[in-house]
Amino acid sequence: xxPPAYHQVKDKEKMIAVIKxxxxxxxxxxxxxxxxxxxxxxxxxxKTGRLVAHIDKNNPQLGALQDGANVTxxxxxxxxxxxxxxxxxxxxxxxxxxxxxHITGTIQLINDPEAAKQxxxxxxxxxxxxxxxxxxxxxxxxxxxxxxxxxxFEIEITDWEGxxxxxxxxxxVDQTNAKNELIKKSEASISxxxxxxxxx
Length: 200
Prior knowledge:
It contains 4 helices and 8 strands. By secondary structure, the chain is of the alpha+beta class. The N and C termini lie far apart (42 Å).
């Protein structure tokens, strides 16, 4: 597995924290030797230890998502360029730090409409935290129509990979400097980037 061992995280709770904080995952599957990719939100079910999501039935990737199919989901946390100037140590090189979680597992389709509705309600409850300004009700008439256009599913997790490249091969002081740089750049980049996208 790459990157090196000191960049790999085995702590499942830390990986779950990444999934909960950054729930938009990249669903990866293969059909006829062709990779298929879709960005969709996932929730982690603490009781079952499974990922839960749904996909539009018009999405071509659905053809590769049969019961028992193997898939990978990539969750991306914060990342940024680390300049050697942030380190106290000399003779360092530029690098890129990041937090990534790869989940591998098998698909279990949710074909019961009521269970599919409940999965959407549970996802909405999670995504609306902590204020819950919107509550999705099961008796919402739109639900009966919407459920026909999505395929809900779970992923039974078979493998966890945490790839946290956070300057662990540096001194303790340099690790702290790199951490502070990641925090600073992550906070600063969001507002500037969004303004660029909206042409502000």
